[in-house]
Design brief:
The chain has one domain (2-116): Lipocalin (Beta Barrel). The chain has one helix at 2-24, and strands at 27-34, 40-50, 53-60, 63-73, 76-83, 86-94, 98-105, 108-116. By secondary structure, it is an alpha+beta fold. The chain is globular, with a radius of gyration of 17 Å. Residues 1-23 form the signal peptide.
């Protein structure tokens, strides 16, 4: 009986911990994107979580654009933001107090770190 209870308690704890980490990425995150040419662009994302789906918006020079094809698994995520005919792929990891993001568009890749917006 004790073994069954302990196993159930451990499984419940793992489920709650995974759910808490997924929900933790929800909200506004900001950072900077520096291009190969030295240009710096501010980044602002508003992430929303619905199960394993990552939705929300990304602020771009063309205004707020929707996050497309967003998926979150544990602390890892991926999504796309489209600006006209350019599809910008994002893959990243949630670390609790920061988010690491790899961004790829038109064959160019870069990495940045986002912090929770105040």
């Amino acid at each position: 009986m004790k073994k069954t209870f302990l196993t159930l308690a451990l499984a419940t704890f793992c489920f709650v911990a995974c759910f808490a980490s997924i929900a933790g990425i929800a909200g506004k995150w900001e950072g900077k994107l520096e291009t190969e040419t030295g240009e710096v662009y501010p980044l602002l994302y508003n992430f929303q979580i619905d199960g394993d789906k990552l939705t929300g918006t990304a602020k771009t020079p063309k205004g707020d654009m929707p996050i497309e094809d967003g998926k979150i698994t544990g602390n890892d995520f991926k999504f796309t933001v489209s600006i006209e005919d350019i599809h910008i792929a994002h893959t990243g990891k949630f670390y609790g107090d920061s988010v690491g993001v790899d961004i790829e568009a038109n064959g160019s890749k870069t990495h940045t770190t986002l912090k929770r917006a105040q």
